[in-house]
Amino acid sequence: MISSDRPASASADHRYLRLWCFGGFRLEVDGSPVDWSGVRPRVRTLLRYLAAHAGQPVHRERITAALWPELPDRSAVNNLHVGVSTLRTFLEPGVARGASRFIVRDGSSYRLEVGVGGGSDVAAFDAALAAARRARSTGDGPAAVRALRNALDEYAGDLLPEDGSAEWVLADRERHRSRATEAAVLLAGLELARGRSRVAITAARRALELDGYHDDGWRLLITAQRRAGDVAAARRSQQTYERVLCSLGVGRTGAPRPVHVTAA
């Protein structure tokens, strides 16, 4: 997780949050886990919603449409105000009205700030993918590889699985999963081009764990296994790949075709 320099100790004037949204929500305040079992479920959902967009302003209409779609506008906005007040008290006990450092209001939008020393896995994932794009644009393969590894380290699983099939999380969950898949495929391709077949195998397998139907993921895996000299594993992967294609109504394949990967 990317964060600012961690303070030697936290104080009332210098507090920070650490947020994890991939693979399950976790929250630390000043480096310590917090017990929020006493917070009402909808208020916890509000915090998770803001955490998934940490550092970014989210308009109140987006929040109310996501969390209280069944309520009239006035009632939904009132619930939002109550929820924000509850979270501010929970995160910063005794904070004066309008003085919260964590949940900041900017006009009609709200923004969850992590503070100096804090961090968010979603923000770190985004930053690592951006770094990989910059490195590739300048032809710096090793830097791209490092950035892609960092991104995949941050992606510990689906976004906020505890929120299930809630409509507000589905699109972002799928988007992050797709980007992680493409990052793994791209990493496999770069490692294969560097002659690191075993590492490429690991990256291709990660891509297929995320998307078992990813064509380039299968072809990279088979090619890397062949280059690594593991003919039996390549044959098994080829057979599995063909079963996948058959399940999609696609015919048999011969040798893996050249792989074209897209930017994450």
From TrEMBL:
GO terms for biological process: phosphorelay signal transduction system; regulation of DNA-templated transcription. Residues 7-114 bind DNA. Pfam families: BTAD (PF03704), Trans_reg_C (PF00486). Residues 7-114 form the OmpR/PhoB-type domain. Keywords: DNA-binding. One of its GO terms (molecular function) is DNA binding. It comes from the Bacteria. Belongs to the AfsR/DnrI/RedD regulatory family. This is OmpR/PhoB-type domain-containing protein. The lineage of its organism: Bacteria, Bacillati, Actinomycetota, Actinomycetes, Micromonosporales.
